[in-house]
Fold this sequence. Notes:
Blueprint (H helix, E strand, L loop, with lengths): L1 H5 L11 H87 L1
Pfam families: FliJ
Membrane topology: Peripheral membrane protein
Subcellular location: Cell membrane
Amino acid sequence: MAEAIDNIRPTPGDVFDVEARLFFNQFWLKLKSTENRQISEIESARESLAKLRQQLMETMRERKILEKLREKHLADYQRELLREEQKLLDEMALSRYIRNENTQG
């Protein structure tokens, strides 16, 4: 684009329009400014995306840890319930045995 602007030269028989040249120069500067701003915005968006991806990975790791911890606590709770249930069944069986011994002898 800069070359195109620089190549605006009067040809024999043309009238060189200084205003047109100034307009194109201003247009070019505005275009470069817009391009630089957009490049900056893209870089900023990339940095934000990288941070969000990092946060997502950390959150996923924490969630996985919490899930494993929950599963471990659930397994511990179920083992304790089974132990208590077995204890109750043993006591019931012992009571029945003692009651049968007392009625038979």
